[in-house]
Design goal:
Number of strands: 17
Distance between the termini: 27 Å
Radius of gyration: 24 Å
Order of helices and strands: HHHEEEEEHEEEEHEHEEEEEHHHHEHEHH
CATH architecture of the largest domain: 2-Layer Sandwich
Structural class: alpha/beta
Shape: globular
CATH superfamily of the largest domain: ATPase, nucleotide binding domain
Number of helices: 13
Strand order of the largest sheet: 5-4-3-6-10
Number of domains: 3
CATH topology of the largest domain: Nucleotidyltransferase, domain 5
Bound molecules: zinc ion
Largest sheet: 5 strands, mixed
CATH class of the largest domain: Alpha Beta
Length: about 425
Amino acid sequence: MDVRNDQPQGLVTAGQRAELMRQGNASAVLRAVLAHGPVSRAEIARHTGLSAPSVTKLTSTLVGAGLIGELPPMEPTQGRPRVPLRVDPDGTVALGLHIGLLRTTFGLVALDGSVIAERELSHGELPDLTPARITRQAAEGVRAFLAERLGGRRLAGTGVTIGGWVDDAQGTVVEHGPLGWRGVPLLDLLAQELPGPLLLEQTVRAIARAELWFGAGREVDDFVLVFIGNVSGAAIVVDRTVHRGPGAAAGAIDHLPATDDPAVRCPQCGTGCLGVTASDTALVAQARAAGVIPAAPQASGPEPDNLALERLVAAARPAGTGTGDPRAQQLLRLRARNAGRAISTIVDLVNPSRVVLAGGILIADEYLDELRREVACRSHRGEDVAADIVPAVFGSRTLVRSSAVPVLERVITEPLTALGLL
Ligand SMILES: [Zn+2]
């Protein structure tokens, strides 16, 4: 074994330490621009505690790398004109790509989390949903999209998200029930096809990371993101890091108890769990069975669940002189309560500063108070907890942004490494 005598193992050299410090300072400058931009160099110095010459040096590196750009100088109130800096939307961007059950969605996202352009590819035209088929379609679509839309921007990498159980460190999809995938080496399949570096993340965790950097998590360092849509999942954020656990298996909440109704039993866990009572799929099935929305296929084929859900919510809402369908209202109220019961278990276990809700549950937001009341009623934290249950800032259209966040996060926290400047 080669052990150098002049450097104790595990310690960094003075040169490495200086580089780490430069990287940390560059990241601090970038974060100040993201949080306060457009912002002058003097204000950056104030926000970061760095010296004026350091800020000047670091900002010129970041401008040169296309991460931030200068706006026209502002008239000075005293002394020299101030040149505001902001994130450059035509500079460095990330590609975000989400593989869903019905479609693959991808797009370009700027460093501040804003989506520049996005595109959808339906899986409806594919003969089957095998990993090879879906990744080939995605690769071809992305190539054409980038040729049209990237322009002179610099691409920092591609973030890929998919639902189910995802082991991001191994780059694999351990299990994706709806697609019927098991043990799929997704990053290997995409490695030659998409612009690298490639980072894989599970959808719900990616949504949590997007909220952490650009949304509801900017004000708190710990929260739980609860996604209730066609599937359910939670991402537990502690000290601004998403908890994963062994095999990245954390966050499965489908089988948390949600109702005592003996008529509702999950074939897998045998209880009235979140999955069988409160998912979008379960809600649509209940509405169809009760005749609140059409059970029979539409003329053009069976109505997709997302449209059926919108139809149910529309039926519940008062329109004109009508008061809305009370059966639809009751179903939505019950779903909110059942979700609230499951969430109260999470709240008591984790005691997060916030519960951030995402997914189809946000479509009928007039029932969120019902959900809050149920959590408050069951949690040992009592009524105060209700105010800490908030909808995700980015709502339901967040897949492209969330998918890109792992790449953006790398650029923001390690700008010099990410751009090959270290
Ligand atoms: Zn269950």
